[in-house]
Structures
1.
Amino acid sequence: MNAFRLQFRFIAPLFLVIALTAYLTVPLVDQFSLRWTVRDLNSRAELVANTISENVIDSIISFDHVRLEALFNRLIANERMLGVGLCDHEGNLRERTSGFPDDITCPIADQVVAQSSPTLKLPRGSVHIAVEPLSRPPLNLGELVLVHDLSFAEKRGEDTRRYLILFFVILGAVIALITVITAHLSLRGWVTGVRELLRGGNPLKAFENPTSELQPLAHELRALLREMEDERRARENPPDLWTPDKLRDLLHADLRGDEVLVVSNREPYIHEKTPDGIVVKRPASGLVTAVEPVMRACSGTWIAHGSGSGDKESVDEHDIVRVPPERPAYSLKRVWLTREEEEGYYFGFANEGLWPLCHIAHVRPVFRVSDWEYYKAVNQRFADKVVASARTDDPVILVQDYHFALLPQLIRERLPRATIITFWHIPWPNPESFGICPWRKEILRGMLGSSILGFHTRYHCKNFIETVDRFLETRIEHEHSVITLDGQETLVKSYPISINWPEPAEEAAWPSIAACRKELRARFDLPEDRMIAIGVDRFDYTKGILERANAVERLLEKHPELIGKFTLIQVAAPSRSELDEYRYFQERLARREAEINERFGGPDYWPFILLAQHQDSETVHRYYRGADVCVVTSLHDGMNLVSKEFIASRNDEQGVLILSQFAGAAGELPEALIVNPYHVEETADALYRALTMPEAEQRDRMRTLRATVRERNVYRWAGFMLLDAARIRRRERIEARLLTHTENR
Ligand code: F6P
C-alpha cells in the first residue's frame, strides 16, 4: 500500500505535465489544420473560377440562362461545393443554385472583408466563400460567388483532437509504467546493495550501478559501517583482555542491556536430597563450565531441565531459583520432564542417536521413532518456556547443544525478532555420516532458525555447510558463511569455547604446588616421589580412556625402569550410565585396569588407578596442580576444556599436556604434545617424553600455552558471539529503518 503511495507521488506530477502539454498543444494543432484547409480551398476556388469565368460571362452577355444554370450545376456536383451564386453589378443576387445559403447576401465582398476571413459561421455550419469579379471591359458584370462546405474540416479537426488526446494518454501511461518498473528495479538493487554492505560485503560491488540520487546515501552508509567495523575490530583485538566487566560493557553498549536467555539441557546447579538435607552440586559438564561465568556476568535467565532429586523443593512458584547459591547473580528456571520424556529425548534420541552420529567413535547411532517423537515434544516444551519467559519480543537467546536442534526454528516461529545464537558443543560430521539420520532434514531446518550457528572449529562449520548443501534447498554464500532458508539468514561461524581465566586474587588463594602434590599422593596412598599423569573426563567412550590405558601398558613394556615410579590416575565421572554402551564401556575399562595392575603392579603399586567418581571442581583443580602430566586422548571432541583447565591451573609454568589431535583444542594449543590416540606406540612415547621433559622445556611450552588460553578465554568466546549478534541486530534495525523511511516518503 505504502509502495503504491510512493509511486503515486512520483507519477502524479508526471501526469500533470503531460496533461498541460496536451492542453496547450491540441488547440494549436486545430488552428494549423484549419489554416491549411482554408489555404487549400482558396487555391481550389481560384482555379475553378479561372476555368469557368469566361463561359459564365458569355452566358450572361448572351442571356443564355439555361447554359448558365448547367454550368453552375456542374460545379455543385462536387460534394464539398455547397452552392454557386451570381451577384450583379448593382448588388442583387441574380442567380443561385439550390444549396446556396440564404444567409449570404450581395454584395459578398463586404461580408468577407467584415469577417477578415474567407470563412463564415452560419447557423447550419461554417462555410468558405470565394468571390471572383466578372468583367469584360468596358462591362462590369458583377461577381461569381463559390461557397464551400467547411464541416468536413471541422470533422477532421475533431478527429485529430481525439487522436492527439489518446496519444498523450498512452504516452503518459507508457512513461509511468517505465518509471514504476525502473523505480522498482533500482529500489530492489539499492536494498540488496545496502544488505550486502551491512553484511560486510564489498561496498563497491554492492553499489556498482547506483543511481545518482542514491550515491550520497550510499556514501554515508559506507562511512557509518566503516566506523562500526573499526569499533568492532578495536574490540576484537583489544590491547587488554576479555573480562567479565568487558562482557558486561558489551552487553550494555552494543546490546543496549537487551534481555538474555540461555537454554540447555544440563542445569548449572543441581539440588540433591541427602540424609543430611539438600545439597547443591555442580555437574561435570564442559557446557556448564563455559556458560556459567558468562551468565554470572550478564544476569538474565537460564532455562534447563530440573534433574536433581531436590530441585522441585528448591524453586519458587515460577520454578525459578536464584544462583549461584553463595552469591545469586542470575535466575535458573527449571523445566520438569517425565521419566519417559527423559528416556526418549535425552537418553534415546540425543545420546544414543545424535551423540554417536556426530562423534564417529565406532559406536553405532540408534534412531527410534518413539525417541524422535519425545525429542520433538520436549523441544516444543522448551520453546513454550522460552516464549513464556521472554519479557521482550526481541531477546537474545543462547541455545546450547545437540539436545535442542529443533528449538531455534520453534522459537523463531513465535518470536520472529529474537536473535537466536545456537552453539553446537560437539563435532559436526561429514554429510555422508550425517545422512544416516532419518530426520536429517528436520534437524537441519530446526537449526537454521538460528541467527548465528556456532561450532568450535572451522572444520565443523565446513562439514555443516556441506551437509546443508547436500540435503536442503538453500542459498549458501560461502564468502560470508551465511545460509538462507525461507528468507531466514544464519551465520555459520567458529567460536572456540574456553574457560574462565583466574583472577590474580583467586590465584593468590590457591594452595601451593607442593601442597597439592603432597595431597594428591596422600589421597591415593602413593609415595612422594611418584610421577603422576592425570586424566579427568566424563566416563564416555569418546574420551579415549581405553586407548590411554593401552598407552600406559605399552610405556611400561618399553620402559620397565618406570615400573614402580609412574602412575596414571584416571578420574571418570559416571555419565549416562543408563545406556548399555556406557555400562559396557565402564565394565571394559574396569577389566583393563585390573589387567594392567596385575601385569605391572604389586601389593604397593598400581600403575593405573581408575576413580569412577564425580569430583568437585576444587578437588580436580588441586589434582591438576599436583600432577606432572595431564593426558587428553579423546577419539573425537568438540573442544575439550580439561586441557585448558590444566593449563590455567599451572601458574608454576610446569607440567606437560598430552593432547589428542582429534580434540578441537589441538588447533589452538600446538605447544602440547599432540598425539593420535589410536596410535598406541605414539601415545606411549609421548608419555615417556612428558615424564622426562626438562623443566626449561616444560616452562617454554607452558608459558605459550598459558598466554593462549588467557587471551582466548570464555569471555572472548561469548564476547565474539555477542558482538556478531549485536552487528546482526544493528543491521536489522538499519534495514527496518530504511524500509520505514522508504515507505513513508
Ligand atoms: O560435550 C557435549 C556436552 O553436552 C557438553 O557440553 C557437556 O560437557 C557434556 O556433554 C555433558 O553431558 P551430559 O549433560 O549428558 O552429562
2.
Amino acid sequence: MQLTNSLTMKKEELVPHEPGVIRMYTCGPTVYGYAHIGNLRSYLMEDVLEKALRYEGYQVDRVMNITDVGHLTSDADTGEDKMLKGAKQERKSVLELADFYTQAFFKDCQKLNIRRPDIVVPATTCISDFIALVSALVEKGYAYLAGGNVYFDTSRLDRYYVFGNQNAEDLAVGVRDSVEADSNKRSKTDFVLWFTKSKFEDQELKWDSPWGLGYPGWHIECSAISIKHLGEYLDIHCGGIDNAFPHHTNEIAQSEAYLGHSWCKYWFHILHLNDGGGKISKSKGAKLTVSLLEEKGYDPLCYRLFCLQSHYRKPLTFTFESLDNAANAYQKLLARIASLAKEGQPDQQAAKPWQERFKEALDNDVNTSQALTVLYDMLKASLDDATKRFLAHDFDQVLSLDLLQAAEKARPKEAGVPEELAREIEALIEKRAAARKAKDWGAADAIRDELAARHVVLKDTPQGVEWHIEA
Ligand code: AMP
Ligand code: ZN
C-alpha cells in the first residue's frame, strides 16, 4: 500500500516494522463538547485506513487516547485547560464532563460505522506513565525546570520542524494563539511537559509529581500512551492536519529524545472539513454535529458516503447541497443493490478481478473515490446478481455503508409488495431522477404519471425519494 507520508510529503510504500502487523496510533478527541462533523471526517478516514489494512490481511493494533486533561485553549501553552473551561460552563466535574462526551463521541462514531479502536485510553488513567517519561527526559538533559513547570528543550534537537510541508502559516499558530507569551521558555519552540504553575490556580485535577502538585501537558500523553501500548516502533500515526504542528511535532521530539531512535515511520494526516467560514472547529462553537444531520432527516451514512467521495489529503467543503447530492447517491446505490436477485451462488473466479481493482484503489493512498468507482462499475458490469451482492458485501468491509442491510430496508417499502414489482418501481424512480437531473421535465413528469397510474405515491426527502402504494 502507498500512503502519503507527511514527513516527506510523498507517497511511500508502507513497510511495517514487523511484517504483517501494523501498529497504529490515533489522537483521540478532547472531550469537552460534542464532536463536529469535521472531527469526524478525520476519524472516519482513519477508520477507512484501518479497515483497508485489515482488508489487505494485516493485523492492525490500534490505540486511541482520550484527552481529558492538559489540552489548553492555546497551542502555545497558555490559556485555560479546555476540559476545565467546559466543566465550569456545564457545571459538571471534569471527569463527569469527560465521561459524558466520551460516550457521545463513540455514539456518533457508531452511527457513522466508525469502528472503536481495540485500545482506548483516557489520559487521566496514565499519569504515572507521563511522570516516568518526563523524568527520563529530565535525566537525559532534554528537559528543564523553569517557574515550577517542566519544559522540553528543543535546542537539544538536530531538527525540530520535521514535517515536509511545514510552512510559515503552520508555524505561526503558536505565536498567533499566544496572547501572553510564556516567559519561562528558553526558546519559543520549547513546550510544557508538566505544569505546576500555570496562570490559573484552580485546575481541578492535580497529581503529585517530582516537580510538585500539577498536571501533564497535552503532547506527552500521546507519546506515553503510544509507547506503553504499541512499543518503541510505531508504523502509522494519524490525526487531523491541524495537529501536525505543534502537537505531532512535539510528540516526535519527546518520543525520539526518550527512545534514542526514530519512532514513527508514517504520518497520516487528514485535511480539514471547511464550511463557508473556513475550518470547522469546536472553539468557534460550531454546531454541525451528527445529531444535527439526523434532526434534518439525514441518515448519518450519507455523511460517510460524502466523505468517501473525496480524498483525505484534500480539504473538503461541506454544504447541505453537497450532502443532499450524497444522500441521493446513497439512495440510488441502495436501490441498485436492492434490485439484485438474492438467489444463487457467487462466482468467485469472476469476483477476483473486481476485488483486485478495489484493492488497487485502496493501495493508491486510500483512494476512496476510486474505490467507489470500482463499486459502481461492478454493479453495472455483466456479472450475475449473486456475485454482485457478494462483492458489495466484500467491499463494504472497508466502505462500511451498510450496503446490503440498508438496501434490504430500502427494498419494498410495504409488506406485501412483490419483489419484482418493487424492483420495477425503483427502476422507474431512478429513471425519473436521471430525467430530472438532465432537466428533462417532460420525461420526469411522464414517469411520475406512470407511477401514479399504478397508485405509487412519491415523496422527495433529503435522503432521496421514498415511495408507497396507496390503498
Ligand atoms: P480535538 O477533539 O479538537 O482534539 O480534535 C479531534 C480530531 O479532529 C483531531 O485529529 C483534529 O486534528 C481533527 N479535526 C479538528 N477539526 C477538524 C476539521 N475541521 N476537519 C477535519 N479534522 C479536524
Ligand atoms: Zn495526540
